[in-house]
Amino acid sequence: MGVVLFLVVLGTVVATGARRWRIPAPSLLVLAGVAVASIPGVPALHIAPQTIALVVLPPLLYASAEELSLRDLKTVWRPVTVLVFGLVLASAAMVGALAVALTPLHASMAFVLGAILASTDPVAVTALGRRLALPSRMQTLVQAESLFNDASSLVLFRVAVTVAVTSGAFSPLGAGGEFLRLAGGGLLVGTALGGVVIVIRRRTADPVLETVIALVTPYAAYVVAEQSHTSGVTAVVVAGVVLGRSGQRLSDARIRLQLHAVYGVVVFLLETVVFAVIGLELPALVRDLSPGTGWWPLQAITIAAALLALRVLWMLPVSSSLTPADARHSWPVAAVLTWAGTRGVMPLAAALSIPLVTDSGQALPGRPLVLVLTTAVVVLTLIAQGLTLAPLVSRSGIALEPEHTAREEAEARARLARTALAHLDAQSGSEITDELVLDRVRRALDARLQQADEAAHAPGGAGEAGTHLAAYTALRREVLAIQSTELRRLYDEHEISDTTRREIQHDLDQQEIALTDDAR
């Protein structure tokens, strides 16, 4: 318990500094972890793989999946499929061959290392890319690749571990069946559980119960899938995508704001702890290495560099498909897509889950070196790529300018205000709507249209407020509902980005909560 408290305090302090210095928090947390673990007398930290896999991963994966834009995913599913299968297989084969050539690892354990490092990590990718102003298709591509490539890499990992532990032979047909069982089963479990949760949440209006359901859902998806001998990671991701798409229609403004706040705290705490753990693990693992493995730093650097080089070759045709009108931008796009693909929590959890002994009861040879190389490559990518990703995006010329984002949001807000004003004009003269109430709501919308956010309510006497408050509140709610519908239409018709939609919907939710508070 003391270790967990220390990690939370360390992570909070470092993350606060990272925000002030505008440095990616994961990179700084890893550096802090390595620095603390290198202090003489600091006890070694050993985290059980079940702790990371069961406690940490589900909510982080679920939060990343909920942020994924399903609309944009439909436009990039072809390159995502190529990366999920082709790049994962190529990366595993290349790392395995390099490990055989450069390290004392046996071929079977070298293949285990390749399977572990074959895929990018959704937790690290989301954490590093959260503040980058990438175009929506690029952001969705990187995020979707990291979310969906775990099934293919997990199959490779399980096959590789089976070969290493039992000295069995590799069967392509068996590997294909294993993939269908893991990925297909995880897809079914995630979809089914997401459907069940949707039914439950439609019948629930209690904010506390809604919050509990949201926190339990990723753990339930993971446990049910693993108990069914399918992919828990895939189940969590699919459940997150399903519920992320339906979340707007399942809850009201107050519940959405509460869930946003609670999950923000949970994600912050888990990310700070897990990235600090990665840094803390490396020095302890190095001390456990056997003699004759002193070249591990050079080996880790070589493997990390080879992974980047291979990723560039795969990203060049992908970038061309994203920028078909101007091939000159393919190199900057390929560079950003390559640099955004980091390793992180998932490889560490997989490496820690490698069995200690073979079926014959002997210690599994090469396991300590695989752990060190995995952690070293993760640390290298989080530090080298994490600290330089934002400058690379800035210099590439493909980042969305702040003015572009602000202009898109301002134009969307203006269109919502005009839609609401048109609805009020249609209500004018109606016997069921008081003209004084209409005028008050219209003035508030006019003020927002002129970007005077403070003038939400026109000045009026206390008697008028008491007489018309209920009617005013009801009409404002009606207007907010119309604006939410218009916002969804703008998003569905690709007129605004997912980031803009989320930002404006958050503002509409806050306005609705303010109405509720005023009515009290």
Annotation keywords:
elongated, Cation/H_exchanger_CPA1_bac, sodium, about 80% helix, Cation/H_exchanger_CPA1
Please give a structural write-up:
The protein has 520 residues and is an all-alpha fold. The chain is built from 20 helices and no strands. The longest helix has 35 residues, at 253-287. It is elongated and about 85 Å long. Belongs to the monovalent cation:proton antiporter 1 (CPA1) transporter (TC 2.A.36) family.
Q: Can you give me a brief rundown of this structure?
A:
The chain contains 20 helices and no strands. By secondary structure, it is mostly helical.
Q: Share of helix among residues?
A: over 70%
- How many H/I helical runs? 20
Structure classification:
mainly alpha
**Main sheet record:** none
Q: How many strands appear in the DSSP assignment?
A: 0
Separation of termini? 43 Å
Shape descriptor reads elongated
Indicate the proportion of strand residues: under 5%
Q: Name the average pLDDT.
A: 81
Low-pLDDT sequence parts: 451-467
User: Helix and strand string, N-terminal first?
Assistant: HHHHHHHHHHHHHHHHHHHH
Round the Cα radius of gyration to an integer and report it.
Answer: 26 Å
Oligomer: single chain
